[in-house]
Automatic annotation (TrEMBL):
<keyword id="KW-0067">ATP-binding</keyword>
<comment type="function">
    <text>ATP-dependent carboxylate-amine ligase which exhibits weak glutamate--cysteine ligase activity.</text>
</comment>
<dbReference type="InterPro" id="IPR011793">
    <property type="entry name" value="YbdK"/>
</dbReference>
<dbReference type="GO" id="GO:0016874">
    <property type="term" value="F:ligase activity"/>
</dbReference>
<keyword id="KW-0547">Nucleotide-binding</keyword>
<dbReference type="InterPro" id="IPR050141">
    <property type="entry name" value="GCL_type2/YbdK_subfam"/>
</dbReference>
<keyword id="KW-0436">Ligase</keyword>
<comment type="similarity">
    <text>Belongs to the glutamate--cysteine ligase type 2 family. YbdK subfamily.</text>
</comment>
<dbReference type="InterPro" id="IPR014746">
    <property type="entry name" value="Gln_synth/guanido_kin_cat_dom"/>
</dbReference>
<dbReference type="Pfam" id="PF04107">
    <property type="entry name" value="GCS2"/>
</dbReference>
<protein>
    <recommendedName>
        <fullName>Putative glutamate--cysteine ligase 2</fullName>
        <ecNumber>6.3.2.2</ecNumber>
    </recommendedName>
</protein>
<dbReference type="InterPro" id="IPR006336">
    <property type="entry name" value="GCS2"/>
</dbReference>
Length: 363
């Protein structure tokens, strides 16, 4: 049976007319809860200008796609009652004045991390994939490390920051990397080693709790899953489904490798950081670092290597044809960063760009 997959998407709340971020999450969340009758789908985030939803665990990717569309539409409908829209943008193209959310946790983050927390108006996409045990989960984490920058490039959707073109495809990844526990990690080797390091990080007093273990991929602290956290939120919901499909393929491929006794590649964290930087900088527009050689290679070639790596798992889950089609589509039109830059070139207006992205966010 195929592993189950769940997706968490963070969305930006923007004024329906100006496109500027709006601090309306409390009102939108309350209305969405009344409309849906559910209190666990939508959740607040660090800033009042964003909200998050989480899907149910799904084994079928068609069902996952339908749920992503449903919750994006529900978020948009609830926001519309307050003159706002929802945009699947990983950073705001227009200037923003982030407003920290309510509650002791967010207040603590603001006090502890200062400007890093106050500026952290970014939207990511987290993919959870079921694992049989922590031991299997850590074996997976050890083996997917070189592939995570490719997922970042594939989902890059944050070229603008405070009204400026950053020259990055995923500037969110650069802003996110300011957190002290964010980024790639070394090979752990065992669940005991993983938990020992996580405990040691918390014991430093720098982090509040396990929820602040912001590794690019980690064991979930509340679900029996591995959680891949490297991606920008995707402008096109079809790209979110592609991401989830490839992540499940990576997890299954890694687990099979572990069961076969194949050791993980012990690439140093310094090289993985270089690969992540390159992915955030160029997206799919230039070269990426090849996951097997850590040498520059055309982005399209690297995507083909990723697909070849997970081909067996995708064939077994019945996802190969849809993944190939979706990969061709995103390679042709580009991820969100390319779409945003093209829209600005065509319209000359960041506000119009945001309005178009609002429409595209609904699929």
């Amino acid at each position: 049976m195929a592993r189950t997959v769940g997706v968490e998407e963070e969305l930006l709340l923007v004024d329906a007319r100006s496109g500027e971020p709006q601090a309306l999450s409390s009102a939108v969340l309350a209305l969405a809860e009344r409309r849906t009758g559910k209190d666990s789908v939508f959740e607040p985030e660090l800033h009042h200008q964003q909200l998050e939803f989480a899907t149910e665990p799904r084994a079928d990717m068609t069902e996952l796609a339908e749920e992503i569309l449903r919750w994006r539409a529900e978020a948009a409908a609830s926001a519309a009652d307050f003159g706002a829209s929802v945009a699947a943008l990983a950073t705001s193209p227009l200037p923003a004045k982030p407003v920290i959310g309510e509650g002791e946790r967010y207040s603590w983050l603001a006090r502890r991390f200062g400007l890093t927390a106050r500026e952290q108006l970014t939207c990511g996409c987290h993919v959870h994939v079921s694992v049989a045990s922590d031991e299997e989960g850590v074996a997976v984490l050890d083996r997917i490390r070189p592939w995570l920058p490719v997922l970042l490039a594939l989902t890059s959707n944050s070229p603008y920051w405070q009204g400026q073109d950053t020259s990055y495809s995923s500037y969110r990844s650069r802003v996110w990397s300011r957190w002290p526990s964010a980024g790639p990690v070394e090979v752990f080797g065992s669940a005991e080693s993983y938990h020992r390091q996580a405990d040691a990080l918390i014991d430093t007093g720098v982090l509040r709790d396990k929820g602040m273990i912001y590794f690019d991929a980690r064991l979930s602290y509340c679900y029996p899953t591995v959680e891949i956290r490297v991606a920008d939120v995707c402008l096109d919901p079809a790209d979110t489904v592609l991401l989830a499909t490839l992540v499940r393929g990576l997890v299954e491929t890694a687990a099979r490798s572990w069961r076969a006794g194949e050791p993980p590649d012990a690439l140093p964290v310094s090289l993985l950081r270089m690969a992540a930087w390159q992915a955030g900088r160029s997206g799919l527009e230039g070269s990426l670092l090849h996951p097997l050689t850590m040498k520059p290679a055309p982005a399209e070639d690297v995507l083909n290597v990723l697909l070849a790596h997970v081909r067996g798992a995708l064939e077994d889950s019945g996802d190969l044809a849809s993944a190939e089609s979706a990969l061709r589509a995103v390679t042709s039109r580009g991820p969100g960063a390319r779409v945003q830059r093209r829209l600005l070139a065509e319209t000359g207006s960041l506000r119009t760009t945001v309005a178009e992205c609002v429409a595209r966010s609904r699929g």
